[in-house]
Write a structure and sequence with these properties.
The structure is a single chain. The chain has 382 residues and is an alpha/beta fold. The chain has 16 helices and twelve strands. The strands form three sheets. Strands 2-1-3-10-4 form a five-stranded mixed beta sheet, sandwiched between helices. It has a five-stranded mixed beta sheet with strand order 7-6-8-5-9, sandwiched between helices. It has a two-stranded antiparallel sheet with strand order 11-12. Helix 3 packs across helix 13.
């Protein structure tokens, strides 16, 4: 429901909550109020949230854990309801948030940034860093009959003059172009293709290589359609996942924002516990189609060799913002501006709100990251 712009006077409940949640006070300032704000009710009241998330992107699987375990029930006001909507790509979620159809989005780094630059449409802010990795998005696959390469760089150099595909404007695209620049690689064709078309392309022998994200990368490997040959681990290129929230939610319901971020923290701790790997796989499988449990497990918890771009740490769970995550946002913003996906060369100073997660971590005496997922060679799933 579209609500009217709220009063410019800061009510008492905002001031009291701001004492323990200091970043909120700046966000409730009337300068960001809009006639297009959604009506979330008053603090303490039950709320209905619509959350966009990506169970088909393993770096943001904390959202799938929140959904599967319904962790939000512990932290939101009694009587609240949450509707989770799957986005096959982050751009779908961003569009829904801009249209007022969703208020919270679990996103890869690129769509999270794009969303935060559309204030002429709606005001979205980046509020949490839910994942950092080198090989959850940055994965290069080649056709199965490609040569056996001596090392990852030889695999990258083989891309010269080949047909390569990636979803343009995505984290995979940014990684592909970083590799191209680093090694002066010019493919014969660099195609803008979705994950589905890339899968068909490998099956039909129409492409030589592709850059994709997990869990699709592991599915293509285990199905025998492609070989993994190099990742961001080999060239020190990170990828990330973030949470965006609508600014009207942040301003009008800081109690809900705090509750949701506490929910996310609980989900990240659950993900980081190796004993929960099989449970996480079951939760994700119930929310996706076309994947086996083994493919899902390998995507986030399994071991890849160093020759395949593997590393002992599959995922870092910062929750809050670290120098690495802020540097990644800056690098990605520069890339998105260069390819004309966004109109600004740098984000507004308040597009990223590190104070929200920082206050929660400080209250617990914790600094990011809150956990890591270490690769395992023993699968607990059948």
């Amino acid at each position: 429901m579209i609500g009217k712009a709220k009063s410019r006077k800061l009510p008492a409940w905002v001031l009291s909550l701001a004492i323990m949640f200091p970043a909120v006070i700046a966000l409730v300032a009337p300068r960001i109020a809009s006639a297009q704000d959604l009506d979330y009710g008053k603090p303490g009241q039950p709320v209905h949230l619509v959350v966009g998330y990506q169970p088909y992107y393993s770096e943001s699987w904390s959202g799938a854990v929140v959904d599967g375990l319904q962790l939000w029930k512990k932290y939101l006001p009694p009587g609240s309801t949450v509707e989770f909507r799957i986005g096959l790509q982050g751009s779908i979620i961003v569009n829904a948030m801009l249209a007022g159809k969703e208020s919270i989005g679990y996103l890869g780094d690129m769509p999270a940034i794009v969303g935060a630059t559309k204030r002429n449409v709606a005001d979205l802010r980046i509020v949490a860093n839910i994942g950092l990795s080198h090989d959850q998005c940055n994965v290069i696959l080649v056709r199965t009959d490609a040569p056996k390469f001596s090392d990852p760089r030889a695999a990258a150099l083989w891309l010269r003059g080949k047909t390569v595909a990636a979803p343009k404007g995505s984290c995979a695209d940014r990684f592909a172009q970083a590799v191209f620049v680093k090694d002066h690689i010019i493919p014969s064709l660099y195609l803008n293709q979705s994950i589905e078309v890339i899968t068909s392309g490998f099956r039909a022998g129409k492409i030589d290589a592709a850059v994709v994200w997990e869990p699709t990368a592991s599915r293509l490997v285990l199905e025998g359609l492609a070989r993994r040959v190099t990742t961001g681990n080999d060239v020190n290129e990170e990828d990330g996942a973030f949470i965006d929230m609508r600014a009207d939610l942040i301003r009008e319901r800081p109690d809900i924002v705090k509750g949701w971020l506490e929910t996310e923290l609980a989900a990240e701790k659950y993900l980081a516990n190796p004993a929960n790997a099989a449970s996480v796989v079951r939760l994700v499988k119930a929310q996706t189609t076309g994947f086996t449990k083994q493919e899902l497990w390998l995507a986030l918890f399994g071991t890849y060799s160093a020759s395949d771009g593997g590393t002992p740490t599959r995922l870092t769970l910062p929750f809050g913002f670290t120098p690495q995550s802020l540097a990644l946002i800056d690098k990605d913003t520069t890339f998105l501006h260069a390819i004309k996906s966004i109109a600004v060369a740098q984000l507004a100073p308040d597009a990223v709100l590190p104070g929200l997660t920082r206050s929660i971590l400080q209250s617990r005496g914790v600094t990011p990251p809150v956990g890591t997922i270490v690769a395992s060679s023993a699968s607990p799933v059948e």
